[in-house]
Amino acid sequence: MSENQFYIKQLRLVFIFSFVFGCSNQPNGKIINIEKKAILEPDYSEITIPPNIAPLNFVVKEAGSAYFIKFSSSTGTELEVSSRVGIIHIPEKGWRKMLKNNIGKEIKVDIYTKSEIGQWSKFSTITNKVAIETIDPYLYYRLVFPGYESWTELSINRRNLESFETKSLIENSVVDENCVNCHSFNNGKTDDFLFHMRGSMGGTYFHSKGEFKKINLKTKEIKNGAVYPRWHPSGKFVAFSSNKITQRFHAADNKKVEVTDLESSLVLYDVAKNEIMDIKLTDKDKFMDTYPEWSPGGKYLYFCRAAQIGQNYDYKQIKYNLCRVSFDAIKRTFGEVELVFDAIQVNKSVAFPRISPDGRFLVITVADYGCFPIWHKEADLYSVDLSNLKVIPLDLNSEYTESYHSWSSNGRWLIFSSKRGDGLTARPYIAYIDKDGFSKKPFILPQEDPEFYQRFLKSFNIPEFSTIEIKLNPGEIRNLAKTEATQAKWSKN
Amino acid sequence: MLSMRLIMNRIKTNKELLFSLLPYLVFLTGSLIYFGFFVDYILFYQEKSALFISSSDFLVENLHQPGGLLIYFGKFFSTFFYYPFVGAAIVSVILTLTILTISKTISFLSGKAVVILPFIIGAVLFYLQSNYRFLLFNNLGLLLQLALFLLSIKYLKFLKGWVPVLIAPFWFFATGGFAWIFSLLLTFNFAFEKSREGWIKVILLWCLNLIIFYISKEFLFFQPGKVLLMYPFSEQNTGSQQVLFLAIAGIASILPVIAKIKFNLFTKFKVTALVGGLTASALIIIALVTIGIKQFDKKDKQYFHVEKLFYENKFDEIINYNLTNPSNNILTIFLNNIALCETNKLNDLLFNFRQSPDGNTLFLKWEMVSEVLKRGGYFYYTIGMVNEAHRWAYENMVMKGLSPEGLKMLIRTELINGNYKMAAKYIALLKNTFFYKNEAATFEKFLFNDSKITANQKLVEKRQDKIKTDFFSITDEPNINVERSLASDTLNKKAFEYKMAFHLLKKDYRGIAALLPKLQELGFNKVPALLGEAAVAYATLNSKPLPNLGRLSIDPQTEPRWMQFLQTFQANGNNLKTAEPALRNNFRNTFWYYSFYL
Questions:
Q1: Whole-angstrom Cα distance, residue B225 to residue B213?
Q2: How far, CA to CA in Å, does A55 sit from each of A82, A111, A447?
């Protein structure tokens, strides 16, 4: 070996040594403690998470030349992740194992950053709790630009919450850019699924027991089209509201769009008999009834009710109460209307009633007025305890819009739309609801790329939990869309 | 002696090569000059119609269906149209390469040099490209098919020539409906092999195509067959020249057939490379000049020049340009009226330009599908209806995708409204472009920083002018929005100017006279000329005193000129028709002339 070769070899060793130890991605030497929690984007700190959720990848929004994250629990270190730029991708396998090992326990997250001069610092420990109850494995939602009138690239998607797998069920690009909306599951039996399509291939598309059909619910007896659907838990009926809707645009207000019902009533569709009928309620012509919701047993139909407006009306004075009626499924008849929550008395208006699977809590969106709170910044989620009709705002609310929400099948998780990120685009947030109906701090649906929400311009619309993977693809919908819709029959009862 | 002969031969060969390349160089140069200097508005339009974002998200978005990659590269090249000469070079190189590829293909297949047909095709493509709505990806798509075919027959001969057959289905993913040209080229080429293997290749090629098409339709992209078959080809993106483009694509698809046809007409004429090269060059120049003149649209050039100045906020230049180059185009006058309003001249110079009496040159009615959506919001931005301006820009983005000016409008309106988080998202997109990074950096400074916005004259003015009291916008009748803006903010000077301009168009003397006392309150330094003319005419014709104008006064020349106008009219026997030429000569830009004759 020549002298030169010897020196080269020595140099290589020095280089490797310095690379391994000098540029270590793991904290070493004296570590400075910073008495604050690191800022994470998305904020996944101090939250309760399902034991089967996909990794909560995040970005550490603190300055540093290297980042090191240590997940630990009462049993010791579980997982370590390092990054040069603060983007933390948690390995899925390790994450799953960690959650499995710590069901019902806490997970500590220690965040270390390295300064430009090589000094490591440690932020205050973040403690997250792994709940005992799992979350439903699937989430269905519509992706749409939070715009005003036009729609392109509109789709209804399925996300596997245990991983990052996403598939589109329906894309409007395959059906002549027709608008697809109002997808709905039967909460008790989530293979019952429907959605509306508006436009040249219009109709209501029902998917039930593997059968897929297109129905025209509009009969000459129905004044306005069937809009907001809810499946009866038996799967035999679907209640719709039939609405005449107007949309106007605010010139100065931050609300941008004002959607107002001019008329609305409730109708019932009998799936097996292909019959649609009025839901006959006392003095129904004096009211606008909308947003139906069945109780878990199907014995009550909840809905929102406002006084029927005249030709000249002040849209800010339209306020909805929460009501219910009993339902006899054999006779297809309804009882007398009962007031559940008098929102008007507290100068508020309710929308989107959704009952927990155990029937104890009903979560509503409460806004200052109207029935379309998606554009209302003040809109928040409130919980009605149906055992005593006590109404409380949930702790999960923010200063921005919280609106559409859905319960998981075990009633411990609530997913809801919130515009807290940027004020415009709705994002799905998940919150743990304890047995007393109180919510924990919510967290945003995790994405493989933690910077996804910073770039993505579309809204996640109507997030709905589901326990099953619906076997549908846009091709099947394209084929059905081309066929004539089966006409529903009108029934007087 | 031998080496001397070699040198001479080499010189001769080089000369022949030069002369044979001369037509291509002439075409390239001619095209470069035409697109770079005469119809640069085509490049401007295409650059402003789409925005190339250098991000993986953008690439993925464009891969949602077969042919998306071609669109992606079309957008990539079009983004360089930002510099007209670079754009002209890109367009010209694509056109010239297409001609060269066709020529080389036929030569390779027939063994003879061919010039005429490739240049005829080139001339037609040049014709198509000189329509501003004919997007670049069309010619790029055609070139890629021809280039891959040439590559296939010349170089991809290993594996016994099976490679192109295997490539074809994947080529469909990249170039969509354009890939059928490649498959047809291969088919004809294999057919002329007149061998069993050639026919097997044809059968396999179309079987693979069919399988890929079926898989795409039923398992991958789910789109209707017609869409998959044609995309990204469309009537809209060819500037409604689809028949001609399809004809050219058809001819390009049968090049192997054409190569087999023996043209005897020109073979009788033996010409030297010099004569051939020069003759072809001369014919190309004639063809390009003829097509160029036919396709040149002065109205379009004027409009896009105005639009360019408009985006650069050069309002005075717009007005001067339109004064020297009068236009009848509604969109040109619409932008010009905004420029007049932004420079406080709307009620002085309104009738120096050809206005539409129904108000369509003042404000555009809401339209979802046409070019109106892209531009109509600027009127609202000027009068302080920031939400409405934002809505137009947003809807345009949803309908037609991102565009540089649309994105900038979204950023500005979000900054004015203080919606910094959304503004940040749009700015991040603009930062990922090639040529708008600096503007993005400038916008970025305003994020979450009200004091920076306050220090910026343009943004702070817009924040101040923004209407404060809410109402519902009526986009089908924009004049109602002007009324409502003024009802909620009586000191909205720009909305007031538009209101008065609408009164002028409607010849509403009384309405104008009634509103004149508000001028002082609104901060006017003088009575705008046209309003003065209306007021004087109203007072004279109705024997009423002029309205109280406070410290403002009507130009002292207005009344004598009105008298002169009336006298001219009377001198022509109070006959409208007879008096018209004289009145036009002296009063063509006055409210009086408009009122009498338009």
A1: 8
A2: 15, 16, 8
Count of structural domains within chain B = 4
Q: Report H helices in B325-385.
A: 330-342, 346-349, 372-375, 377-383
pLDDT of amino acid B6? 65
On whether both B443 and B500 belong to a single domain, the answer is no
CB of A250 less than 8 A from some CB of B: yes
**Cβ of B308 under 8 Å from any chain A Cβ?**
no
pLDDT for A208: 82
Which one has a higher pLDDT value, A285 or A182? Answer: A285
- The SS3 call for residue A150 is coil
Q: Which residue is closest to A248 within chain B, CA to CA?
A: B472
Residue pair A51/A100 in contact (Cβ under 8 Å)? The answer is yes
Q: Count Cα neighbours of B515 within 13 Å in the Cβ-side half-sphere.
A: 24
Q: Which of residues 443-462 of A touch B (CB under 8 A)?
A: 454-455, 457
Region A157-176: what's the mean pLDDT?
91
Model confidence at A280: pLDDT above 90: yes
Select from A148, A456, A471 the residue whose CB has the most chain B CBs within 10 Å, as the one to mutate to test that interface. Answer: A148
Minimal-distance CA residue of chain B relative to A252: B470
Which residues of chain B carry a pLDDT beneath 70? 1-13, 158-159, 263-271
Determine the distance in angstroms separating the CA of B450 from the nearest CA of chain A, rounded to an integer. 17
Which tokens in the block code for residue B551? 């410290």
Distance from CA of B271 to the nearest CA of A (A): 57
Global confidence as pTM: 0.92
| pLDDT for the residue A21 | 43
Which amino acid is residue A330, in one-letter code? I
Q: Are the beta carbons of B422 and A250 separated by less than 8 Å?
A: no
Q: Is residue B526 part of a domain?
A: yes
User: Is residue B307 located within the same domain as residue B289?
Assistant: no
Does residue B451 sit within a domain?
A: yes
Residue B219 in contact with partner chain A when CB distance is under 8 A: yes
Homologous superfamily of the A26-130 domain (CATH): Immunoglobulins (2.60.40.10)
Counts for chain B of helices (H) and strands (E), in that order: 34, 0
**For range A464-473, the mean pLDDT:** 88
Where are chain A's structural domains?
A: 26-130, 138-489
Under CATH, to which class is A138-489 assigned?
mainly beta
In a domain, B533, yes or no: yes
| Residue with the two structure tokens 């809209």 | B236
